[in-house]
Amino acid sequence: MCADSSSTPSTFSSDSKFSSTSRKAASVLSHHPERITSGEQARQLAGIGRKIADKIDEFLQTGHLRKLDKIRASDVAVATAELSRVSGIGPAKARQLIDGGVRTLEELRARPELLNRHQTLGLRYVTEFESRIPRQEAAAIERHVLHRVAELDGRYRATVCGSYRRGAESSGDVDLLITHPDYTSDGAETGRRRTVDGAETGRGRSAAGSATARGSGRSAGGRLLGAVVDHLSQDGFVTDTLSQGDSKFMGVCRLPGAQYTTHRRLDIRLVPHDQYHCAVLYFTGSDEFNRQMRAHALEQGFTLNEYGLRPLGTTGVAGEPVPVGSEREVFEYLQYPYRPPEQRNL
DNA sequence: GTGACGAGCGCATCTCA
DNA sequence: TGAGATGCGCC
DNA sequence: GTCAC
After folding, report:
1. Residue A136 has pLDDT above 70, yes or no
2. Verdict on whether the full-model pTM lies above 0.85
3. pLDDT tens digits, one per residue of A85-102
4. Quick count: other Cβ atoms within 10 Å of Cβ A101?
5. Which residue is nearest to nucleotide C4 (CA to C1')?
6. Residue A14: CB less than 7 A from any atom in strand B
7. Is strand B in 7 Å reach of the CB of A202?
């Protein structure tokens, strides 16, 4: 994992228990319906222990936290936060840069040789990526993309998910899900696509990349996704690629027309046809809505994830995925009152 | 006091045999 | 050169 | 760090 988080007492170590525990505590607190007036009160909540409760009391009494002040004052933390604005730079790369004497974006621009492709683009577009996408522009992107995909092959199905689908007035990026009847999870004919369910696989790394990289050819998924990306690049809409494999493209786009001056983050995922509705549900979110719906699924004896809805046997082992013909059907199977995307902002 | 736990996956890139 | 490890982004 | 044991 993190090379040596022990040697240098880092303020942010991404994988420490501290971060996830704090995240859990923060999540619990932020979802608590009532105002917290004492550490003792917060202590009653799941995930809040003595230390966090003490900090709540300190903040309530003094209006700030000594430890937080210290962290904010630390140069390394400031530099890490600054460098992490760049997409593709995380805690490890930031530390490496700081160790090499680079602490600001200005200094980073002077050392382009230190960055890989993703990071180079992240630096180029750092300000543009930080600006929100107004709903009107996201809608224009949606129209453009759906039109272009349809003219490429009318059998594609595509949906813009994320906060845009939930009706948000602005979005951070555009998340497009696409599917095609020729691409299914059983991988018949298309060649090697294991039936993914994400439940019992650990951190399984497959050799997905090698099939694409080799000259011989792309998988069915690679071709279907590649065709869409190529088509969207033809007219200049897709301007850059951060990464692209057989099933996921991450890149940059900008609509034609003088009124659109800002480059936007665009993700395109190719999803197996039989998993499409569960994927759309999942990628529409919100995070909290997904958690609640999954919890409800468990109570109903199902397991729900982006790959499908599966019944749980008496032993707790997941069975075969239930065929799902629409997002609404997932709700119905679970006897969960249907909520349109605009009402999933939890 | 001790051990389990924290999401998990796709892609790019590094590391090492 | 290829398998595995690591870093990163992301509901 | 927090929780269940």
Report:
1. yes
2. no
3. 999 999 899 999 999 999
4. 8
5. A205
6. no
7. yes
CATH class of the domain comprising A285-343: alpha beta
Domain(s) labelled CATH 3.30.210.10 in chain A stretch across: 285-343
**The CATH homologous superfamily of the domain defined by A133-188+220-275:** Beta Polymerase, domain 2 (3.30.460.10)
Query: Which single residue is written with the structure tokens 């027309």?
Result: A257
A55 is catalytic: yes
The token pair at A11 is 């303020």
CA distance A195 to A187: 8
User: CB–CB of A161/A266 below 8 Å?
Assistant: no
A20 closest-nt by C1' vs CA: B6
Distance, Å, A9 CA → B1 C1': 27
The listed CATH number (3.40.1740.10, 1.10.150.20, 1.10.760.10, 3.40.140.10) that belongs to domain A78-130:
1.10.150.20
Percentage of chain A modeled with pLDDT above 90: 58
More confident residue, A290 or A237: A237
Residues whose beta carbon sits under 7 Å from strand D: A 17-18, 21-22, 25, 45-53
* Tens-digit pLDDT profile for residues A182-222: 999 886 533 333 334 433 333 333 323 333 333 456 888 88
- CA atoms of A84 and A272, how far apart (whole Å): 33
Domain with CATH 1.10.150.20 in chain A: 78-130
Chain A window 143-172, residues with Cβ within 7 A of nucleic strand C? 161-162, 172
Sign of CA dihedral A195, A201, A203, A206: negative
Q: Is strand C less than 7 A from the beta carbon of A270?
A: no
CB A167 within 8 A of CB A342: yes
